[in-house]
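[recover] target loaded
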């Protein structure tokens, strides 16, 4: 297993420079012994309760360091940017933002909370917000600035009462980008028109029965 030697140095150690710190680090590493023949994890560590410690990661070998990185570009946006959730008034009623925006809280907690314009909310939302505490809405995220904890979005539509099958189902299908609109007349014309329709014996003879 990787073992990281941590150390601290005071003002007296700093006077000796980094060469002195490197010598201390190498001495500490030499004190570690590995014995694969022993029972247990095979690692023996010497007690160094009061020994010197080094906090400068530049003094450690590369294999002891945790690599870090940052996202520099998004190749493809996989999320539909649509979310199902609830709207509520902002907590700070004296802020300028309270007069312009409401807060959208997605049901899926992986999606950030969103500022939505009050103009897109129902007309009586500000006067009676409690009447919409259990109403599901669809919101689409349009932007998320780097210096903001919340995204900005637009309310698409009201789905209905939370907990009912139809609004919940429509919300899930919309979030995942599933097209659940009605079939076109051209598509419906391809279906058998004489109902009830059954598979003919000739067709059944050519098929493999998996029932």
């Amino acid at each position: 297993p990787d073992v990281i030697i941590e150390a601290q140095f005071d003002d007296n150690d700093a006077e000796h420079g980094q060469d002195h710190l490197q010598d201390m680090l190498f001495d500490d590493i030499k004190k570690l012994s590995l014995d694969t023949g022993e029972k247990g994890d095979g690692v023996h560590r010497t007690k160094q309760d009061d020994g010197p410690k080094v906090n400068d990661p530049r003094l450690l070998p590369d294999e002891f360091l945790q690599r870090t990185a940052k996202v520099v570009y998004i190749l493809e946006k996989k999320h539909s940017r649509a979310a199902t959730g609830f709207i509520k008034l902002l907590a700070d009623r004296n802020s300028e933002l309270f007069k312009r925006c409401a807060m959208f809280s997605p049901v899926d907690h992986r999606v950030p909370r969103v500022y939505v314009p009050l103009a897109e909310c129902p007309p009586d939302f500000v006067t009676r917000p409690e009447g919409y505490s259990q109403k599901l809405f669809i919101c689409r995220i349009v932007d998320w600035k780097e210096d903001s904890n919340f995204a900005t979005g637009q309310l698409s539509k009201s789905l209905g009462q939370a907990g009912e099958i139809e609004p919940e189902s429509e919300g899930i299908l919309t979030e995942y980008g599933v097209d659940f609109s009605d079939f076109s007349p051209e598509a419906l014309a391809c279906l058998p028109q004489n109902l009830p329709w059954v598979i003919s014996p000739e067709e059944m003879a050519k098929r493999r029965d998996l029932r």
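[recover] notes: The first strand starts at residue 33 and ends at 34.
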